[in-house]
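Much of what follows relies on a compact textual record of a protein's fold. A complete example follows; check for yourself that the lines match position by position.
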Amino acid sequence: MARTTRNNDDVTGKQLRLLIGLVVVLACGAVTWSVVTAVHADDRPGAWLLVGLILSIALTNRTVVWMRIRSTKLGISWTEVGVLVGLVLVPPSWLVICTVLAIVASKASVRMSRQKKVFSIAKETLVAATGGVVFALADVTPSPNEPQFVAGTIAIAALAMWLADELLMAPIMVLDTHQDLRQHLRSHWDLRVTAFVARYVVTVLVVGILASAQDVRALLVVPPVLLCYHFWHTGRLRSREERRFWQRLAATTDSLNNVDLVSVLRSAVQGAAPLFSVEVVEIELRGRTDVRLVRGGLDGITYDGPPDDEPPATGRTIPAKLAGHDGSDPIGELRLRFRSPVRFTEAEEYKLKTFASALYTAIRNANTYAELERISAEHAYAAAHDPLTGLANRRELLEHAERRFAGQVDEGMLALLLIDLNHFKEVNDTLGHVTGDKVLREVATRLRTASRPDDLVARIGGDEFAVLLTGLPTPAIATHRARTLLASLDRGIDVDGLQLTVEACGGIALAPGTGGVTELLRRADVAMYQAKRSGQRTATYVHSTDTADVGRLMLGGEVKRAMAAHEFVVEFQPIVDLGSGEVVSAEALARWHHPDHGDLTPMQFLETVERSGQLPAFADAVLRQSLAAAGSWQEAGFDLPVAVNVFPRSLLDPGFAAGVLARLAEHDVAPDRLVLELVETLTISQLEVVERTLRDLRDAGVQLALDDFGSGISPLSVLSQIPVHQLKIGREFVTAVETSSEAAAVIRSTVDLARSLRLTVVAEGVESEPQRHALWELGCVAGQGYLFARPMRAGRMLATLQRGSGGRPGVLAGALHDAGSVVRMPRRRASGRGGSALPHLPA
């Protein structure tokens, strides 16, 4: 950029020199003509008259009204007055000679470049020659003794000289100031016209005095008259220019009243250029937050960006600091750049400081407004977003959904997906809230990445997320999108070297016809609980099941009261040897004896208990009742293990193992008489705290069972990490064992796997003799179900055992084989995992 500027300056310099050379050649021609004409003229003016004209022209040339156009200082002199008066007294040729001598003498003591002096002398010579031509054509006979009052000729000559002066100066000024011709002609046109009229008036006044006095000595009146008029005229011009400047300054500073910093800086640059008649204006900010450079001029902004990325502009600079009135709090600098050296007057410096002060205030106001806007935006963002994940919060979700409701006709169907993380409290309770927060942030990132741009992802609770699905062409697409979102959570989450697996379920609700956003959220919540209850990943809101779900949701506030009122009771279902019919153990099943809703099954309330925060107390109550029942049966002669369901969250409690052992000791029950059933897949089974808990329980002799094995809920990999002793086959396989070869294959493979690992197998949901026979033939030797007994209280269980079947206590069904005896496994397996009180698998 600097090289381009230098090249442009070189071209401009050559053009200037050519124009000045042309003017000088023309002036030399005019001088030559004047000298030749004067030498051959018959009459010659007196020496004193010529000296007086030279002095008068020199005096009028030095009497100048100065004005600056950018870096060029333009002077409007009274030279034409002396020339026009001289044309009335002496012939044009002598006047041109006198003009040359006068201008040379006038410029001799002026500090300016030689090029400007030569051009000034040549220009004034040609202007004087132009006036002489007009007088010659008008056939005016000059005479110092009888000067003629020719006002018309003077007017024509004055106009011709003014036009000649403008034509000679215009191309020079255009090249020197880099203005176009029209811009130059418009610049100070009123001042130039006023100066022309003033020169003509003064000339007519002086010629009138000479014509009336008929004496050349009247020229002595010219200097005082000219000076008086000059001072008066100059004072008026300065007063007017001062008034106009402050008006323009007021208009320019008004344009700075903007709250946008970029607009302020650009307006200041483009406003300062004409205000101070400068080529380039720069504003450089170096505050704490704003670091930028804005450069431009009359033609617009040429640069706006970091100061270090732009090379410095060329030329001479007049700077002004952007700071407070006392110089404090500097934020940058305003710079006026000129192509040539320019010296500001004291008044101009004051004006520049005034403008810089106004600009400083405008920048500060813009920064203050921007800061207020930032704070307001932060508050608005914080009010609408979750601080942990950055997702929208519940309020933003509801408001956004309301806006979508208004335009959903044009945007397709609307649905809400409510997502709940299963067992997330385990992470917080075991690994701390810091780890839990990391998991939540990763979940938020994955949901945001997997969602569509128009969908809104929100976090509406501790481990609850919601996705507002928009633009759905059909309801089925909502299910497809929901599965895609939940699938994004399948991949393990690495937190501080631990691989955590996140499981989640989701409820989908399509926008209802009535009820608005509140109803949409309620339906999605109901659907989510339907998914949890059915063991599915997603569920869509079904109106027919709404009442039950709503009733279950209402139970959440009653759990604590129910615990205090001992409304949770335990029933027991016998586990029977399929071959002999003998009871070998019992499974504890919790029931909620609700005063209004009657007996509620675990499927109806376990999720509510888990979400209520009362799970530890609930689990302990079930364990105490179960061990108390086992103790009472043992005292009656029936040494039966009792199986109790345990949640993975309980296993993640470091004090769980110690608590279980303490309860065993309290009820005087041997540890191997307790079987803990894992009801779901451990979502973070790799954690050391789980392995430590299970190891402590195993070492103490407590048995472990894996529930619903083969249903897809418990992966085979769990068997290599959890020291289980028993596998339980889900009722869906038992129900289909007679009719489905696939179900039979699953049961057979499970039995074969258990045999190879020396584990026992229990079938759940046995309801008919054909099912019993089929299971026995497949190698399964233990089962439970309505075929043998329904769940019952501990006392009734004892009575049932005592009554037995066929006169045999402890037997609930006839034998399938002649031997019919129960073959028990040893207390300790070869693998060191412990023994089992269940039948041995047949060979």
Summary: The CA atoms of residues 83 and 462 lie 97 Å apart. The chain has a mean pLDDT of 78. The longest strand covers residues 583-594. The domain at 16-246 is CATH 1.10.1760.20 (Arp2/3 complex 21 kDa subunit ARPC3).
